[in-house]
């Protein structure tokens, strides 16, 4: 009974996740090697590495990779830097702090599609949108965000949504700072900037790493915002790797090429994941 | 020794800055909320209207559209069911790993963590094909399964950490008091973990409700969730904004509120405990 | 026949042998204290008796029944944990009645037993409170009450006083002693504090590195320590250990029965002050601790010998003074180089 019970308890979860992991992976590998169009499911043939070649040499591919890097890089930069600043700003008590916290984290819980439409219509619309109004107020002509700067618009939307996440992480991390250490530093005559440099930033090093890695993993799959607003366009201007795969799979119905692309995405994600897992693993040892 | 200034300037500056930035960042949501109570004409007025008499017409009209209720019900059913089923699978696993620790436990946890890191798009094609073959496309069942699978690693992880928080000595005391394994679980472990279970459930409810990737790809007219519905409004039907705002507000309001209550779990759950 | 018997108990955690062969016989109604430095295995031994850990080798026999393989819940033992381990989601009453409820004792009897234990421990007013609403001392008493209510064969205490502040510790110690007198229950008590050991125990078991160094009544251990470890562990301030090499002439002059590489042990109260120039040794005063009822003098000399002297009289001496010391040799303990006792203390019978 001693060894049987724990194993039994684990079985449903392990079996489920095993299936969830292996089956799609196996199928993806299989599909990536064959010719399979979802509209013509009977015509199947072996394609070797042709799908990979097709996916990688597709001119849209390099654009998509660039867009993905730009999207992820900018969002991470914005969210981490601003998030840290915000967290430091509200670290010590001030009137209404609790309410500020609530307001700040709200955007994260907004459905991505609502987020997308919110920005598309209410904020970025060149005539009626709020940003347009502000521009007009200052005497400038409003910017046509989604048509002229599609990727930037997506970056803004996604950053807005993920900023609370980074802020929350840093707020949590700051709470665990050793207050006595800060007091000792103050008694030693450290200015705020010095405290930042020698105490706060090192303490936040780990949370930054965690935030970056989590965002790397989740931002790779940014999809809903693109789908709802720009549809990847104009052209390929706001297509990222995830959307490209989607286009191949469900717009071109080419399962083979899409699968090849998917494996590529999985590879990227695994690299980031490997680092995160090592970090978390160290935590478990403590 | 420095003299305390009568007007704590740094605090004032800090508060002002914090409030200014917060209001700026919250503005889009606030604006959305305001617009939900305007008429369509008021909504598109240039310059924007700040002062107006609020109306509930939009909410009423949206509710009268039967498909809105359908989508809302789908969201509710898929979120709740996927969370409940997920909890039923995750709890025994987390319990086993927390209390019957073996040398495989850590590796198992890490492996579960890694399954969450697979980008959803990586599984799009096979899942789509499977769903098609199993005739689960555009069904609530299909969505429930996918949502549950997506959140399972997070659930196991969070429940594991909640179980571990229960001091071992309390369980030993129960054993000394004569409790069998089942009694120990039922009378001590479970009541103490109930809070953690609720928090985990809440977080996963939020995640499922907001889930957009699979909703958009695997469902449309019949099993669509609110995420799908809102996405379908993306074509600009100009004089439609107030109603769109009302619909959006109804879709996100409960979840935003739930989110307020699950801040701590969010950090724990999504960072897999790496940030405390 | 002894009530609780431990035969050849061994326990290892991985490569570390924590308990290296322990044999012990405990009589019914005895208050036994396991004492020793951190890591000596005393808590492990207690947990082995409780059944919270499994022995690798050996037998445990309780009241004639071999309980080595029995589960904790079946051993009829009650344990008071260091951290009290109260059930946070239950009231004091429910905490104390939990075991009885599990044993399906009728509600009326449960009520009676709990109220009786609560009366003994002065918990009557708190029966409906939750543990988080109680102070440390009150929680301690609930933990004890939980154990009393069950009237088990043996009470096990795992360092119950270490989480209390000094004043409360002394008070609770007395209450535990009184409780034992009233209930007369067999008790095994673990502590690292030798004062608790000396004051509470019928017999003390001194452990080091998983082995029993000595078993005896507190005064037996005090007057006749079997080795230098026990000699220095029991008694505060510590027994003075004079290396024979530092007092060679004295050893020769009095023909002390100890080798040149051995040690002479003398308790601080077995040294006497003499005016400067007199006495067996000349020492300098480093520090004077005036405790009111007694005075401690810390002494040293140029050869590196350090002594502590205890007397009940006040002292006018100060740091730097030179004085003479007499050693009460008929109370001396002699140890060889490995610390084993050669002859101990006043010739006791």
Order of strands side by side in the largest beta sheet of chain A? 1-2
What is the second-level CATH architecture of chain A?
Orthogonal Bundle
Specify the CATH class of the largest domain in chain B.
Mainly Alpha
Fraction of residues in H or I helices of chain B: over 70%
Describe the main β-sheet of chain B briefly. none
Number of domains of chain B: 2
User: Biggest sheet of chain A, open or closed, and with what strands and sense?
Assistant: 2 strands, antiparallel
The oligomeric state is heterotrimer
Largest interface: A-B, 103 and 97 residues
Shape of chain A: globular
Radius of gyration based on Cα positions of chain A = 23 Å
Predict the CATH topology of the largest domain in chain B.
Answer: MetI-like fold
Q: How many domains is the backbone of chain A divided into?
A: 1
Q: Bin the strand percentage of chain B.
A: under 5%
User: Care to count the β-strands of chain B?
Assistant: 0
Please name the CATH architecture of the largest domain in chain B. Orthogonal Bundle
Tell me the helix content of chain A.
Answer: over 70%
């Amino acid at each position: 009974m001693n060894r049987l019970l724990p194993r039994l308890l684990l079985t449903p979860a392990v079996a489920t996740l095993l299936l969830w992991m292996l089956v799609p992976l196996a199928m993806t590998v299989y599909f990536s090697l064959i010719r399979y169009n979802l509209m013509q499911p009977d015509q199947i043939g072996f394609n070797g590495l042709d799908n990979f070649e097709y996916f990688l040499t597709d001119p849209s591919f390099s654009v998509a990779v660039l867009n993905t890097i730009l999207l992820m890089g900018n969002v991470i930069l914005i969210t981490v830097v601003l998030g840290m600043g915000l967290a430091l700003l509200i670290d010590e008590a001030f009137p209404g702090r609790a309410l500020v916290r609530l307001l700040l984290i709200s955007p994260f819980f907004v459905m991505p599609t609502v987020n997308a439409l919110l920005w598309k219509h209410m904020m970025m619309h060149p005539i009626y949108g709020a940003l347009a109004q502000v521009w007009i107020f200052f005497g400038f002509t409003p910017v046509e965000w989604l048509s002229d700067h599609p990727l930037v618009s997506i970056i803004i939307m996604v950053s807005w949504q993920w900023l609370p996440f980074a802020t929350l992480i840093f707020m949590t991390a700051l709470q665990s700072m050793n207050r006595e250490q800060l007091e000792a530093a103050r008694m030693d005559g450290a200015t705020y900037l010095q405290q930042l440099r020698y105490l706060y930033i090192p303490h936040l090093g780990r949370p930054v790493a965690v935030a970056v890695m989590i965002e790397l993993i989740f931002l790779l799959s940014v999809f809903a915002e693109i789908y709802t607003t720009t549809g990847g366009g104009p052209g390929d201007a706001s297509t990222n790797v995830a959307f490209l795969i989607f286009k191949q799979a469900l717009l071109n119905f080419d399962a083979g090429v899409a699968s090849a692309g998917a494996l590529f995405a999985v590879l990227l994600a695994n690299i980031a994941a490997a680092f995160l897992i090592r970090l978390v693993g160290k935590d478990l040892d403590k | 020794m420095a003299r305390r200034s009568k007007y704590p300037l740094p605090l004032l500056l800090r508060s002002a800055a914090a409030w200014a930035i917060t209001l700026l960042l919250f503005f889009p949501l606030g604006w959305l909320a305001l617009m939900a109570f305007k008429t369509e004409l008021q909504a598109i007025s240039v310059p924007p209207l700040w002062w107006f008499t609020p109306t509930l017409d939009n909410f009423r009209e949206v509710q009268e559209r039967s498909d809105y209720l359908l989508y809302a019900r789908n969201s509710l059913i898929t979120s709740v069911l996927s969370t409940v089923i997920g909890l039923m699978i995750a709890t025994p696993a987390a319990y086993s790993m927390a209390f019957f620790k073996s040398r495989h436990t850590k590796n198992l946890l890490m492996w579960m963590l890694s399954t969450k890191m697979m980008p959803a798009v990586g599984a799009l094609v096979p899942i789509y094909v499977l769903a098609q073959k199993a005739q689960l496309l555009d069904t609530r069942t299909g969505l429930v399964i996918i949502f549950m699978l997506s959140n399972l690693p997070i659930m196991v992880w969070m429940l594991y950490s909640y179980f571990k928080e229960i001091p071992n000595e309390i369980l030993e005391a129960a054993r000394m008091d004569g409790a069998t394994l089942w009694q120990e679980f039922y009378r001590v472990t479970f009541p103490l973990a109930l809070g953690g279970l609720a928090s985990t459930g809440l977080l996963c409810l939020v995640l499922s409700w907001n889930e957009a990737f699979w909703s958009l790809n695997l469902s449309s007219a019949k099993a669509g969730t609110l995420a799908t519905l809102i996405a379908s409004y993306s074509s600009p039907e100009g004089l439609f904004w107030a109603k769109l705002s009302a619909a959006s507000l109804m879709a996100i309001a409960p979840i935003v509120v739930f989110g307020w209550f699950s801040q701590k779990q969010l950090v724990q759950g999504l960072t897999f405990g790496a940030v405390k | 026949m002894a009530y609780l018997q431990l035969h050849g108990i061994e326990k290892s955690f991985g490569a570390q042998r924590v308990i290296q062969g322990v044999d012990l016989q405990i009589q019914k109604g005895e208050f036994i204290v396991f004492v020793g430095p951190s890591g000596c295995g005393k808590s492990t031994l207690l947990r082995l008796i409780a059944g919270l850990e499994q022995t690798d080798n050996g037998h445990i026999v309780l009241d004639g029944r071999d309980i080595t393989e029995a589960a904790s819940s079946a051993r009829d033992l009650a344990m008071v944990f260091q951290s009290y381990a109260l059930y946070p989601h239950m009231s004091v009453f429910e905490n104390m009645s939990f075991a009885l409820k599990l044993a399906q004792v009728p509600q009326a009897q449960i009520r009676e037993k709990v109220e009786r234990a609560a009366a003994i421990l002065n918990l009557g007013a708190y029966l409906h409170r939750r543990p988080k609403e109680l102070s440390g001392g009150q929680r301690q008493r609930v933990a004890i009450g939980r154990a009393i209510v069950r009237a088990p064969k043996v009470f096990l205490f795992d360092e119950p006083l270490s989480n209390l502040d000094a004043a409360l510790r002394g008070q609770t110690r007395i209450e535990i002693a009184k409780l034992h007198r009233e209930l007369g229950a067999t008790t095994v008590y673990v502590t690292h504090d030798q004062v608790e050991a000396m004051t509470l125990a019928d017999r003390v078991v001194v452990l080091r590195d998983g082995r029993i160094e000595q078993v005896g009544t507190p005064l037996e251990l005090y007057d006749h320590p079997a080795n230098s470890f026990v000699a220095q562990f029991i008694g505060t301030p510590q027994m003075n250990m004079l290396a024979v090499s530092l007092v060679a002439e004295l050893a020769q002059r009095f023909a002390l029965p100890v080798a040149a590489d051995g040690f002479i042990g003398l308790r601080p109260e077995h040294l006497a002050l003499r005016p400067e120039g007199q006495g067996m040794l000349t020492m300098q005063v480093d520090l004077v601790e005036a405790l009111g009822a007694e005075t401690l003098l810390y002494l040293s000399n140029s050869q590196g010998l350090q002594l502590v002297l205890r007397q009940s009289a006040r002292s006018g001496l100060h740091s730097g003074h030179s004085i003479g010391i007499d050693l009460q040799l008929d109370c001396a303990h002699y140890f060889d180089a490995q610390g084993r006792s050669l002859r101990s203390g006043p010739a006791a019978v």
